[in-house]
């Protein structure tokens, strides 16, 4: 996609607007597949939480992806999008036994991350295959909020609890068919990931009927030119060799699984916002756009840095701007950024807006959530309509009768 295509889409669908490039998603899917081509059986389960629009899910299904889900609602979305139940894995955290049972009843692979629910589920449903999520106690990830494999994490069953886990499996006679880990997002050090993988391999030796080992994901993508990223090709070469060696020792080939989300869709996404006001103060030039952290929360929530370009004036003189939103509190997308000269009415493009952007959007300040468009085979296709005032009121119950003054009785 180019800037002219994006500007045309804004003319057609308005701003703010999310746009996703299907070609980029497909190329990332193929890149990851090719990196692990030496593995006899590979399964990529797209992490639905990254971008859960049903049209994106249908596109992932068409590529041959499986689906990683974290809620019963995502499971149902996946089934509606055409995924077969056996292509969906349910990897929740801290949910009720009833929700896990509901997912299992739909025929999907369940993945349990705590001993309490594992024992309860195994006692009631010993014949239903279960994957176990292990916490390898390895710190990985680019931010404390997205590092989930360390010792203080709420995710997974601690490797120090393996003896207890094995006792539960033995007592319930439950069927463990998979082992899983996820250390965190934005992984920079391949050696740390490989170290955690060794812990997973060691754990897997305790189970004789495994069908797959799931290594999670969290691969880092570049957010600007020259930005560091996970070397997928090097990881593929090293982990494939080690995985094949493990399978040989285990006695049969297993499936190597990943659950990529950001890696597949982050770079495919563009967020487009219109400049409302250019405001000069004593020290700063603010470019205020018709959006805020209600649409793109990652800079305020994670401190993430999205590249921002002025696609209305790509050849203008560069100046320093702080790009801010219209939410009624501190709402900063980027401070002191070098951007081609901005005028009111220009369209700014935020890159890497495909993952954990729209899915984390809200109606804060009673603002509408934006439209979404899929760029597919050279054309834009609307995949979510822009919200209206009716959407703000939907599901609210107006109890105005409670506050109306009582009618006075009339005297004859």
Automatic annotation (TrEMBL):
Substrate binds at residues 298, 302, 329, 356. CDD domains: PLPDE_III_DapDC. Pathway: Amino-acid biosynthesis; L-lysine biosynthesis via DAP pathway; L-lysine from DL-2,6-diaminopimelate: step 1/1. This is Diaminopimelate decarboxylase. Keywords: Amino-acid biosynthesis, Decarboxylase, Lyase, Lysine biosynthesis, Pyridoxal phosphate. It holds the Pfam family Orn_Arg_deC_N. The modification N6-(pyridoxal phosphate)lysine is found at residue 49. It catalyses: meso-2,6-diaminopimelate + H(+) = L-lysine + CO2. InterPro entries: Ala_racemase/Decarboxylase_C, DAP_deCOOHase_LysA, De-COase2_C, De-COase2_N, De-COase2_pyr-phos_BS, Orn/DAP/Arg_de-COase, PLP-binding_barrel. It is an enzyme of class 4 (lyase). Homodimer. Specifically catalyzes the decarboxylation of meso-diaminopimelate (meso-DAP) to L-lysine. It comes from the Bacteria. Residues 18-354 form the Orn/DAP/Arg decarboxylase 2 C-terminal domain. One of its GO terms (molecular function) is diaminopimelate decarboxylase activity.
């Amino acid at each position: 996609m180019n800037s002219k295509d994006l500007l045309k889409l804004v003319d057609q669908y308005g701003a703010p607007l999310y746009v996703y490039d299907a070609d980029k998603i497909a190329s990332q899917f193929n890149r990851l597949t090719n990196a692990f081509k030496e593995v006899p059986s590979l399964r990529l389960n797209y992490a639905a939480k990254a971008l859960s629009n049903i049209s994106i899910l249908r596109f992932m299904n068409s590529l041959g992806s499986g689906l990683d889900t974290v809620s019963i609602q995502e499971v149902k979305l996946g089934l509606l999008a055409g995924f077969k139940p056996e292509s969906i894995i349910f990897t929740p955290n801290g949910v009720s036994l009833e929700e896990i049972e509901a997912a299992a009843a739909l025929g999907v692979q369940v993945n349990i991350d705590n001993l309490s629910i594992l024992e309860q589920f195994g006692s009631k449903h010993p014949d239903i295959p279960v994957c176990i999520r292990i916490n390898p106690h390895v710190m990985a990830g680019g931010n404390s909020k997205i590092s989930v494999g360390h010792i203080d994490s709420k995710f997974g069953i601690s490797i120090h609890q393996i003896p207890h886990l094995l006792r539960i499996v033995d007592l319930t006679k439950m069927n463990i068919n998979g082992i899983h880990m996820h250390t965190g997002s934005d992984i920079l050090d391949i050696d740390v990931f490989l170290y955690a993988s060794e812990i997973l391999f060691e754990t897997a030796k305790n189970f004789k009927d495994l069908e797959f080992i799931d290594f999670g994901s969290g691969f880092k993508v570049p957010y600007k030119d020259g930005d560091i990223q996970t070397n997928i090709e090097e990881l593929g070469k090293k982990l494939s060799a080690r995985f094949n060696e493990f399978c040989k020792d285990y006695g049969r080939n297993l499936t190597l699984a990943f659950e990529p989300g950001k890696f597949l869709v982050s770079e495919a996404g563009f967020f487009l916002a219109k400049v409302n006001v250019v405001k000069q103060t004593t020290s700063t030039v603010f470019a205020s756009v018709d959006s805020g952290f209600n649409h793109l929360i990652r800079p305020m929530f994670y401190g993430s840095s999205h590249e921002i370009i002025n696609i209305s004036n790509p050849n203008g003189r560069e100046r320093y701007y702080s790009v801010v939103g219209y939410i009624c509190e501190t709402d900063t997308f980027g401070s002191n950024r070098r951007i081609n000269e901005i005028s009111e009415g220009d369209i700014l493009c935020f890159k890497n807006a495909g993952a954990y952007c729209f899915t984390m959007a809200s109606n804060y300040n009673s603002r509408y959530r934006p439209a979404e468009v899929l760029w597919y085979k050279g054309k834009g296709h609307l995949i979510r309509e822009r919200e209206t005032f009716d959407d703000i009121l939907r599901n609210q119950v107006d109890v105005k009768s409670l506050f109306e003054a009582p009618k006075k009785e009339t005297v004859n």
